[in-house]
Structures are given as C-alpha cells and as structure tokens.
Write a structure and sequence with these properties.
Elements (H helix, E strand, L loop, with lengths): L25 H23 L8 H86 L43 H9 L7 H11 L2 H19 L14 H8 L16 H13 L1 H24 L2 H8 L2 H13 L4
C-alpha cells in the first residue's frame, strides 16, 4: 500500500488551496504578539519620557524606529509560513510519486508472475517428455520384445551397405542377424523419425523400437536424437518451427544427389533466432558441429533409400517430422542449399 500522504495540521499553510480561507497559525500569533510587545514597549517608553516631541527628521526616524521592527517581524512571519507551506506540498508530491512508483512495480510484478508459470510449465513438460523418451530408448535398446506377425505397408528397400570395418554378428551359414528381422514399414519409419509426442504415445514408441532394431535406421534415429537434445539446450525445439513446404519432386532431386540452389526450397526454416543460435554454436562448439555433420550424412543416406519406395504423400509426411525439420535447419546453416 502507498504511504499515507502528509496531511496539513490546523496551523499549516494551504498555498494551493485556491480561494479556501486561511487559518491563523502559530506563526501569525507569534508575529502579532511580538508586534504588540514592541508597540507596547515604544508606547511605554514614549509616555515615561520627559523629552519633548521630536520634529522634522527626528520625527521621521522615530516613526521608522517604531514601525520598522514590526514590518520585519511580519515579513519573517510570512516567509516562515510560505516555507512551511512549500514543505508540506513537497511532502505531498513525494508521497504521490512513491505511491505511483509502487503501483507501477506491483503491476509489473503481477504481469511477470502471470506469464511466467505458463512458460515454466511448458519447459517442464518438454524436459519431462525428453527424459521419458531417453528412458524408453534405453529400455528398448537393451530389451527386445518379439511381436506376432502383422501386416506391413510397403517396406523399405534393403539397407545400404554399412561403413567399412563394421562387424555384424553372423549366424550359421553366414546369415546376418538382421536378415531374420521383418523389414520396417514406411509408415513406421516416418513415425519413428518423428519421435513419440508424449509418454503415452504407444504407437510412437512401438515404431521407435522397431526402427532401433534396424541397424542402418537406428544410426539415423540416434543421430537425430543427439542433435535434437543439443538444440534443446539452446531452447530450439522443432515443434516451434514452421518451415515452408517443398514439393516432393525437389526432395527426390535431393535423394538423387542434387545439391545447391536447385534444392534451396528444402531449406524452409525461416526462424532467424534459431538459425543464428545454431550457426554460432556450430562455429564455437566442435562436439555440436561433429554431431550436426554426422546427422546430415545419416539423413542423406537413409532418405536416399527411403525415396526409392516412397510415394509423394510419404515424402510430404516425412517432411513434417522433427528429424526432417532438424535437417532443414542444419542444411541451411551448413550450406547444403547454397
């Protein structure tokens, strides 16, 4: 609450009261008393004196001696009353300024307190979802659950050859372990690279688990998870980005090896703050830069395989995933579309 304003006492002046009647204060009473005392003393001295009445200049000096002290007393009284009135007004103005300042600060604090919980709640939800996703990823990569056979949509073609030096666990007669796994469907691939939306997204986690069982696709999923986690450290979330859509034929040209201005429409991310933060961290953080380039390579290889079996609708759906948006962001920063 603002401090109470200074209220004038009964004997204080009211310089800003307009036509309001002025009260007699202690200052006027003191001036009146001194004046009467002085005039009484002069009268007593005149009556008790045997000297004749002065004439000429002497009379004028006598008048000055009588009335000059009285004038000085009232001048001092008026000055004191004015000073006192100004002091009261200054206190009033100071109290009003303090009250306005306090009200402004309370409004600012109320506005900040009203907006902060929503932001903090959103950040907490995102962090909780990320932690739950990490926990599920650890569970799925360490424990394999076999499901009964199910119908799949058109499947991806065979995975591209792995990096040189990769060792595959082989069964009898030289059959790789991956050959015994059912191929990943296109719909599940798209759902997996988008990652589960919430902790209750069972279909998302099921598709993610199937993707992690495919060695080649698992590389893309883990690379995407790494860069999404690193971007989240700078407050960059793919759900907040709204990229421009590119036609499926431009994505196919990218899958077939075209680079540069011809596929510039794929770099649909226009958020300047996200681009600036990502570019600055790629220059300053070697770990971030290596993770970004590794992710771009994995996306290039996986999308080249995906494009051979995907329809235009499949490509359009893939372009809306979080992994594809991360590719657009890093592609623009790394100059893939220049």
């Amino acid at each position: 609450m603002p401090e109470p304003q200074a209220r004038p006492t009964e004997d204080s002046a009211q310089p800003l009261s307009g036509g309001a009647p002025r009260r007699v204060t202690v200052i006027e009473l003191a001036a009146m008393g001194l004046s009467l005392l002085w005039l009484g003393a002069v009268a007593f001295n005149y009556l008790s004196s045997d000297e004749t009445e002065p004439a000429g200049i002497g009379a004028i000096m006598s008048v000055f001696l009588v009335f000059l002290p009285v004038a000085l007393i009232w001048i001092a009284a008026v000055t004191a009353r004015t000073v006192r009135g100004l002091r009261v007004e200054a206190q009033r103005l100071q109290a009003a300024v303090d009250a306005m300042r306090k009200t402004y600060l309370e409004q600012q604090q109320a506005a900040a307190a009203g907006g902060r919980p929503a932001v903090e709640r959103k950040l907490d939800e995102i962090a909780a979802a990320q932690r739950q996703t990490d926990a599920h990823l650890v569970t799925f990569t360490s424990r394999r659950e076999h499901e009964p056979p199910r119908a799949l949509p058109p499947v991806l073609p065979g995975a591209v050859a792995g990096d040189a030096g990769d060792e595959q666990p082989a069964l009898a007669l030289g059959t790789p372990a991956e050959a015994l796994q059912p191929p990943l469907g296109i719909a599940d691939f798209i759902r997996a690279v988008n990652f589960p939306d919430t902790g209750e997204d069972k279909e998302g986690f099921r598709a993610l688990r199937l993707a992690l069982e495919d060695r080649e696709i698992a590389r893309l999923v883990r690379a995407a998870q790494d860069v999404l986690t690193l971007l989240a450290q700078d407050g960059i979330y793919m759900d907040d980005l709204r990229p421009d859509r590119a036609r499926p034929e431009i994505w196919r040209r990218f899958a077939q090896g075209e680079r540069g201005r011809g596929i510039a429409a794929l770099g649909g991310i226009r958020d300047r703050s996200s681009l600036a933060l990502t570019a600055a961290r790629m220059r300053a953080d070697p770990v971030f830069r290596d993770a970004a380039h590794h992710f771009l390579r994995q996306f290039d290889r996986s999308f080249s395989t995906f494009e051979k079996a995907a329809s235009d609708q499949d490509i359009a759906e893939l372009a809306e995933t979080r992994t594809a948006r991360a590719f657009m962001l890093f592609g623009r920063v790394a100059g893939v579309f220049d």
